[in-house]
Structure prediction request, 105 residues.
Amino acid sequence: MLTGNARGQKHRFVCPPGGLTLPAPVPTLETMEVHFSPEQEAQLSRVAAHAGMDAELFVKDAALRRVEARNQFSAAVREGIAQANRGELIDDDEVRLWLESQERR
Prediction:
């Protein structure tokens, strides 16, 4: 099929064999197995029991917390890059003073 743009130029659009398709759906996790060594299972069971939780719930909670922490870290990095791109930078002497103040805590 040929179409024209606002400048009168012609572009050719070709439909691939089989037509246009939607992207494949993102797979979801209905069930998942995680394999631990017997020592790891024992350690997880002890820690979960100490926390008053079932081991499966404990592992699920830990995994979801890790995902959330990673998402927060990624968001902070993206924000830092955006700030740097806007020129919102901190002088290295200021950073050094801040780090030293954190060490004294």
Q: What stands out?
A: The chain has a mean pLDDT of 83.
